[in-house]
Amino acid sequence: MNKTKVLIIGSSGLIGSALVPFLQAQGFEVGRLLRKPQELHPYWDIKQRYLHLKTFNTPDVIINLAGENIANARWTKQKKRQLVESRISSTKLLVEHFQNVSPPPKLFINASAIGFYGDREQQQLDESSTVGNDFVSQLALQWEQASQGIKNIATRLVNLRTGVVISKDGGALTKMLPKTTKTPKFTAPA
Fold it and tell me: Which of 49, 51, 22, 47 is nearest to 37 (CA)?
């Protein structure tokens, strides 16, 4: 029996680095699409528009988590360009490639953000709520729009709108926790 093949883009990020071992433990065959040529893993060059997928040329599932870290620096004009470019170009390349693969993937999960809705204070929101007007909302909208071309009769598209990720391994939680100071060791007199 063949294992379900899952190709993960953004496997070195906070979510991806937890997802890879989880899926492997569940029995999935996981490929990590990396940015540098690797012997064991698929790799790609987004600027050159090149994918070397090795044994993952027809994955069953694609999970696209790729994108510049949104919380690691101030949002200068240059940072905003990087945030947009790192999500839109990579997603468009994936969609263009996998639109023409046979058999097509059964599922394409594309990361997005609850920031899609913008700051609505206490307003109750659902999937039919409109997009917000701020930068993060428009970024999420563009990212989701870039993924739309993958939808067809055989491929289901899920735009996964996540919120702030809380993990002891990094992300927002490490910024929220107070800095701890090491207490000197105390040795009792003999």
Answer: 51
